[in-house]
Structure formats: C-alpha cells, structure tokens
Amino acid sequence: MPDLRERAVVEVGRGPIQLCSAANGELIVALASGDTTLTVLDGRTAAVRSTIDVGPSPWNAVAQGSLVYVAMHTAAPAECIDAIQVVDCAAGCIVATIQLLAESRSKIVGAGI
Q1: φ, ψ dihedrals at 24, nearest 5°
Q2: Residue 27 to residue 21: CA distance in whole angstroms
Q3: 20 to 30 A Cα–Cα from 51, which one of 18, 19, 66, 110?
Q4: Could you report the per-residue pLDDT of 65-94, keeping only the tens digit for each?
Q5: What is this structure's pTM?
Q6: Between the CA of residue 77 and those of 53, 68, 70, 112, what are the distances in Å?
Q7: What is the rounded CA–CA span in Å between residue 68 and residue 72?
Q8: Are 16 and 31 in contact (CB under 8 A)?
Q9: Which H/E stretch holds residue 58?
Q10: Residues 68, 61: Cα–Cα separation, whole Å
C-alpha cells in the first residue's frame, strides 16, 4: 500500500481542483480553476518549479511524459477559450494550442492520447 501521508502544504493558485503526476512522478502538476495557472511541483520535495499561465479557467488535465494536456472551459460571457493547451512542464511553457469548435466544452478523460 502506498504511503499517503501529508508531506507538504503548497500554495498553487486560486481554486485548486486537480493534481496529476508527470514525467514518471518527477513532477506533480496542480491545476487551479479559479485562476489561470498550472503549478509544476518537484515530485520528491513538493518545491514549486514553475507557475505557467495557461489562460482562463483550466478545467482538467492529463499528463504524458513531461507534457500536460489542459482542457480549457469557461462559460459565456466570460473570456472563453475552447482549446487544449499543451504544456511542457520540464521547459515551463505552453508548446501548442489545439483549437476546438466554439462552445465544445473540452474535457480530457484518460491518458490514451
């Protein structure tokens, strides 16, 4: 059974909603839906490695290697981006934006990307 003890408390933006493991556990990604950020943490120490602005209302994320695919979701009349932001957590930046149909309400369910 894995050791599930609390090891650190880290501020990761307004409205944290999700954590996911990236780069084989070397990185932990924290998504904040009340903010525009994704926070990359060191998987061993929980130290903040970088904070990346991904745009309004990140909704869900899934990692493959050091890439994290972030579904963006906002409701009109707010500034809306219907897209998947592809973030390279090792480099600390967005490397691609995959545009989706307007009001498609993107969601990412699994890591079968």
Answers
A1: 55, 35
A2: 6
A3: 110
A4: 999 999 886 555 455 567 889 999 989 999
A5: 0.80
A6: 21, 27, 21, 32
A7: 13
A8: yes
A9: strand 58-64
A10: 6
| Residues across the chain | 113
For 16-99, the fitting CATH number among 3.60.20.40, 3.60.15.10, 2.40.10.480, 2.60.40.2660 is 2.40.10.480
Q: What is the CA radius of gyration of the chain?
A: 14
How does residue 109 score in pLDDT terms, banded at 50, 70 and 90?
Answer: very low
Task: For 15-31, write each residue's pLDDT tens digit.
Answer: 888 888 899 989 999 98
Q: Which residue has the tokens 């602005």?
A: 53
26: tokens are 């070397």
Edge-to-edge strands of the sheet including 83-88? 58-64, 67-72, 83-88, 93-99
Token digits for 56? 């309004």
Could you give the dihedral angle defined by the CA atoms of residues 104, 59, 109 and 106, in that order, rounded to the nearest 10 degrees? 10
- 11, two tokens: 């501020």
